[in-house]
Amino acid sequence: MSIPQLEVFLQTVELGSLTKAAEKLNYTQSGISHTIKTLEKKYETTLLIRDRSGVRLTSAGRELLPYIQAAFSSHRLLDEKVMEMNRMESGLIRVGTFTSVSSQWLPGIIQKFKAAYPKVHFELVHGNNEEIEQAIISGRLDCGFIKLPSTEKLHTTFLRRDPMVVVLAEDHPFSDKKAFPVEALEHFPYIEINEGIENEITRVFADHHIRPDVHYAQKDDYAVIAMVEKNLGITLLPELVLKDTIRNVVCRQLTVPAYRDIGIASPFENSASRLTNSFLSCTREWVEKEYEERPT
């Protein structure tokens, strides 16, 4: 049993496809299949069912999955410990993230971290909360930025409360108001962020029984802001998305509290690597300093 074998199995399960796993790991499909058969022979059981729709775990595979995930994580921690003992400063940190953190926070955080660890490399993986949490639990990611609260299976640290703001064109009738009435969200054409999942925006609507008059749906935050600038509608976004925007728009907080809490999640401290813990400390310090200097 080797780290590459475990990684092949976990990637195949995560992606649900031999072909996708081969593309992700730069293997041939036959190489992926052979590796999984080798594991199945070693464990004397069938781990995956293969059919035209892809692959899925057998009952034995489901039972062994958490142990394989733990073994994969332990192997990576062992390798990193050996590097530490050999006084090697290089390494890889795999970080889960989402768009606004990637564009507004991570460049500064990574710059600060690499000043102390110049040979460390990063792999940034975008996803929603559930995807990032599961990837950390499985060992595919070392840590990840998430919206709190999170699963109790992970260690989480609160970083910043990010207010929700209504984004308006400069000549909108409410642009000169100090705050935007929550009930007015359904009185103007609305541009929706189409993520396909419940989030802090849809919860604002649900909590206040708002039915927005959706005229457009976009998947990209910044495309939505551009449409607001052209007075095609209003939208509700986290304030961090608007930081340093070059668009001529106006942002107003709602008349009722609405926000998202941003945190960073990792395995519990006794199982996270030294590099991961150093990155977590660097992240906390950077966010604290950033908002000391730029109060909201």
UniProtKB/TrEMBL annotation:
Pfam families on file? HTH_1, LysR_substrate
What is the name of the protein in this document? LysR family transcriptional regulator
What residues does the HTH lysR-type domain cover? 1-58
Tree of life domain: Bacteria
The GO cellular component terms are: cytosol
Q: Which N-terminal stretch is annotated as signal sequence? A: none
- Its family? Belongs to the LysR transcriptional regulatory family.
Q: Which organism is it from?
A: Alkalicoccus halolimnae
Q: Which UniProt keywords apply?
A: DNA-binding, Transcription, Transcription regulation
Which molecular function terms from Gene Ontology are attached? DNA binding; DNA-binding transcription factor activity
Q: Which InterPro entries match?
A: HTH-type_LysR_regulators, LysR_HTH_N, LysR_subst-bd, WH-like_DNA-bd_sf, WH_DNA-bd_sf
